Amino acid sequence: MTDAPDAPDAAAEIDVSIPHLDDDAREAAQERQQHLTKPPGSLGRLETMAADIAAMQATPQPAVDPAVVATLAADHGVASEGVSAYPQSVTGAMVEAVDAGGAAISALAAAGDIETLVVDMGIAGDVPDGVIDAHVADGTANMADGPAMTAAQARESIRNGQRVVADHAADAGIVGLGEMGIGNTTASAAITALLTDRSVAAVTGHGTGIDEATRQRKIETIEHAIAVSEPDPDDPLDVLRCVGGFEIGGLVGVTLEAASRRVPVVVDGFIASAAALLAVEIEPRVADYLLGSHASVEPGHAAQLDALGIKPCFDYGMRLGEGTGAALAIGIYRAACTAHTEMATFEEAGIKPE
Ligand SMILES: Cc1cc2ncn([C@H]3O[C@H](COP(=O)(O)O)[C@@H](O)[C@H]3O)c2cc1C
Ligand SMILES: O=C(O)c1cccnc1
């Protein structure tokens, strides 16, 4: 296959095969739940979560451990348009903080007994030794001037993300999507507008905390970028090429590879959800392996979750990223699986329910 730099041929070019959900495992899990020492259905969504994960993992005994959150980082050329409250240099600095164990995701993952992977997908600058190298380039080009990356880089970012799972999370019970990249809510809003058919204004929020005038400039920047590169909304690789980011492409790859291995994927906030939208465009069956985490403050998140067909587990007013919502949600999914597998049945407890 040739690598035509400006005409990506979408889904067919990414090598992925997603297994069907295992309906027998789901039914076995649901049957077990009828016998556990509680009124049927009384654990509410925890019961559905356990049965869903059973179908994904093809076992009536679902389990999330070892649990992993992968935080993929990259720089964005569009940061030079002043669309974030922080300078581009914060991406690399925060990666050092994650590597040193001092970031929010480090603390929440430690609290939740979750392994973290920190991945360089395209940081402009020095990267600490402990960071996994999946570097595509030193940040994307400024999407306001033309495509953010080449078609070859779009594919490379996805493949590198697939490799992160194959090489570092092959035995994971669950994977959470995390990211770091100043300017990446701009890329994500552009992707979301294109893939959910919403206006740019409707899905563009305050990101790291920009004021309303800056948000207006962010909207204009995205509209201009879309007008300049004219991404084909029906071609996810073209959308990634024109307005995406290397960590977003990497998260597409993580999602595809995890789903292909029957590993449930916990989608985090606005950026992770933009990546999930692209992954589902590439291979719709991937949607079967997605699990919700929190409801982000970003206004476009609800439209993303709607398009993905997943529900948030909680709404704590979070708007950070890094995989922080996914880390908290993994605790809930773990609890759902543990209740499912560890609770006694009425028979075992010697209780006669009738
Ligand atoms: C210190 C700091 C830590 C972060 N951790 C995640 N983000 C989040 O904010 C950025 C996206 O917002 P925007 O598009 O407005 O730049 C991403 O790095 C995202 O992961 C952070 C941002 C900052 C400043
Ligand atoms: O929803 C998110 O994940 C988010 C929102 C703002 C900034 N960074 C991430």
UniProtKB/TrEMBL annotation:
> Per the UniProt record, which EC number(s) apply here?
2.4.2.21
Any Pfam family matching the protein: DBI_PRT
Q: In which pathway does it act?
A: Nucleoside biosynthesis; alpha-ribazole biosynthesis; alpha-ribazole from 5,6-dimethylbenzimidazole: step 1/2
* Amino acid composition bias (Low complexity), ranges on this chain: 1-11
As one GO molecular function, the record gives: nicotinate-nucleotide-dimethylbenzimidazole phosphoribosyltransferase activity
Q: Identify the keywords attached in UniProt to this record, alphabetized.
A: Cobalamin biosynthesis, Glycosyltransferase, Transferase
Q: Which InterPro entries does UniProt cross-reference here? A: Nict_dMeBzImd_PRibTrfase, Nict_dMeBzImd_PRibTrfase_bact, Nict_dMeBzImd_PRibTrfase_N, Nict_dMeBzImd_PRibTrfase_sf
Specify residue ranges for compositional bias: Basic and acidic residues.
20-34
Q: Which family does it belong to?
A: Belongs to the CobT family.
The protein's name is Nicotinate-nucleotide--dimethylbenzimidazole phosphoribosyltransferase
Originating organism? Halonotius terrestris
